[in-house]
Amino acid sequence: MTKSSPATWLDQVHKLGKDFRERAAGHDRDDSFVDDNYVDLKEHRFFTAAIPRELGGGGASHAEMSDILRCIAQYCSSTALAMSMHQHLLAANVWKYKRGEGGEELLRKVAGNQMVLVSTGARDFLESNGEMQKTEGGYLVSAVKHFASQSAVGDVLVTSAPYEHPEKGWQVLHFPVPFKSDGVSVLNNWQAMGMRSTGSHTVKLDNVFVADTAIALERAQGELHPFWNVVLTVAMPMIMSVYVGIAERATQIALAQARANKSPKPHLAYSVAEMNNQLITAQVLLQDMLRITANYEFQPIEQHSQDILARKAVMVNACINTVTKAMEVVGGLGFFRSFGLERLFRDVQAARYHPLQEKDQLAFSGEFLLKD
Fold first, then answer.
1. Where are the beta strands (DSSP E) in 267-332?
2. Sign of the C-alpha dihedral, residues 230, 242, 172, 106?
3. What is the DSSP letter of 50?
4. Which of 109, 133, 158, 363 has a Cα at 20 to 30 A from 115?
């Protein structure tokens, strides 16, 4: 699959997606990770699709990978969201590689071994959490990292922790940790309202050794480092593609049911149009996010973070409103788990919790807009 065209990637998603959809209810019921879907995706090299071809990957662009995630979400929300966490970490490194600023070593490793990368960035953001003690040749790290999607099958944890530097004061150090490292444990505690099959367990680090040479970034704690302008710009379109895919699937289900309704209520057409308006809002905003990201051709400026986060906040409401309207269109049938819409309604709620949450985004954007 390494030389596949965008159409071929999507064709393969639709083939695999039939099985994903059949398995989704069982995984949701059991709170079990989508292991079988990951096996299929690995077999077709989706975990290396976004890596440049010269490094052993499939060469899919940022926009193409976002489209892949959107389509996967129409078959299994949890699979798409879990995979988006791996893909956005790759995307940040592809951005660095394309600018000659590193990333090549990690990208080659992932391409060669199909490693699964697990992020803790959403919970860590500006402050991070945990403790780091200096020791010979590195640090001993202890921390509890929540919402680590795919940690059920992860190979490398991409994380951070605060460190009080004797001269610089409080810093946040970023580093990778192999899951096989001594002191790393995955707590089997992901029982959630929605996105139940993402394997977003808590990861505990107990005096894990991190070598000095493993530190990828050092930044001042609490400040918006340019690093975040890269991460937010590449990550949010990929993550929100998942929720647009959920909204699209909910619309498909609702429309099919509404068209088959032999005795529609007078307001049905209005509800369908309202649902469609919300979906279009989400779709247009996603395309505008991808315009900003420009397939990695962007500068790491705060304006992009502001623009991406503002669009994300509006998209969250549009996606949730779309699925809510789909429930209204369908009526009581949507309340049954067997119908499938109820699971989408629960899954789409998770969109609220990706950074920044709405009130945090409003504070961030307001402060940015008030600057001279």
1. none
2. negative
3. T
4. 133
